[in-house]
């Protein structure tokens, strides 16, 4: 079936998903990201492609079991979230992992993000967290959506595999982790303790704060420890995604 009108009901529904107005569903665009989604076995609801998909796209479409709709070039461009359409879009169910899945390890390392605003930063941290072997990921209320199209492009498929609980209470997360035996640690440039000197082998929730303001006062006061990354002057701070990578891979080094 070829859809040639951008006012088609399926297209309008897909656009609502893209804009985050259908919270149970996510908008996934691009051949690589769709392939990651299919491999992760997310439940798919609809697929949109060009009238003449490429050979590689056709092979991927053979793995897709949901309804597939061909779109005219103009309709596909109107639906795309990128400057230049990538020719393949799927609508899938948002993953909702169980809380217990995050604590399956004997010594969990969990990442919490407090009001991270930039989708690129948040997506990069999701990717970094998976690469570092993090067991779970909490995105506190006020942060960018971990499953928005731009965030998904930055995470490059890691969001489909890493257990992520989004829009949760920061203080509630601290209490949950503490009740399960985790230490709570927040990164801040004002800390006395270097991230090299904290014992990352113990079960830990690491919290990274907002790009400009850092973690909230309530979070700072509630954490068991504060750590900083030693920097050469005159540099005073790092991008939050870079800071997260530095700290998480120090944890990896110690745990090995």
Shape: elongated
Strand order of the largest sheet: 8-7-6-11-9-12-10
Query: Compute the gyration radius: what is it?
Result: 20 Å
The fold-level CATH name of the largest domain is: Alpha/beta knot
Q: Topology as H/E string?
A: EHEHEHEHEEHEHEHEEEHEH
Low-confidence stretches: none
Give the count of structural domains: 2
Annotated CATH architecture of the largest domain: 3-Layer(aba) Sandwich
Can you describe what's shown?
With 256 residues, the chain is α/β, with parallel strands linked by helices. The chain folds into two domains: 2-93, Ribosomal protein L30/S12 (60s Ribosomal Protein L30, Chain: A); 99-255, 3-Layer(aba) Sandwich (Alpha/beta knot), CATH 3.40.1280. The protein is 33% helix and 22% strand. The chain contains nine helices and twelve strands. The chain has helices at residues 9-18, 31-39, 55-61, 73-79, 119-131, 149-155, 170-179, 217-222, 240-255, and strands spanning 2-3, 25-29, 44-50, 68-71, 88-93, 109-114, 136-140, 164-168, 183-187, 193-194, 204-209, 225-228. Strands 8-7-6-11-9-12-10 form a seven-stranded parallel beta sheet. The chain has a five-stranded mixed beta sheet with strand order 1-4-3-5-2, sandwiched between helices. Helix 5 runs parallel beside helix 6 (149-155) and helix 5 (119-131) packs parallel to helix 9. The longest helix is centred in the last third of the chain and has 16 residues, at 240-255.
């Amino acid at each position: 079936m070829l859809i040639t009108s951008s006012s088609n009901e399926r297209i309008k529904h897909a656009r609502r998903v893209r804009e985050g107005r259908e919270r149970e569903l996510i908008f996934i665009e691009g051949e690589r990201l769709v392939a990651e989604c299919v491999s992760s076995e997310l439940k798919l609801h609809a697929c949109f492609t060009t009238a003449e998909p490429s050979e590689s796209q056709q092979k991927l479409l053979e793995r897709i079991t949901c309804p597939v709709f061909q779109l005219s070039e103009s309709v596909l461009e109107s639906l795309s979230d990128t400057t230049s359409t990538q020719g393949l879009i799927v609508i899938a169910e948002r993953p909702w992992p169980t809380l217990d899945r995050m604590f399956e390890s004997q010594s969990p390392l969990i990442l919490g993000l407090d009001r991270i605003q930039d989708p690129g930063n948040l997506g990069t941290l999701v990717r970094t967290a998976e690469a570092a072997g993090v067991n779970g990921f909490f995105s506190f209320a006020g942060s960018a959506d971990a499953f928005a199209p731009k965030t998904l492009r930055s995470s490059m498929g890691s969001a489909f595999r890493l257990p992520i609980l989004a829009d949760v209470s920061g203080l509630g997360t601290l209490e949950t982790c503490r009740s399960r035996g985790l230490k709570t640690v927040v990164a801040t440039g004002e800390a006395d303790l270097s991230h090299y000197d904290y014992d990352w082998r113990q079960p830990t929730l690491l919290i990274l704060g907002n790009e400009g303001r850092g973690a909230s006062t309530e979070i700072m006061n509630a954490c068991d420890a504060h750590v900083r990354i030693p920097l050469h002057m005159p540099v005073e701070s790092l991008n939050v995604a870079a800071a997260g990578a530095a700290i998480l891979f120090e944890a990896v080094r110690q745990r090995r």
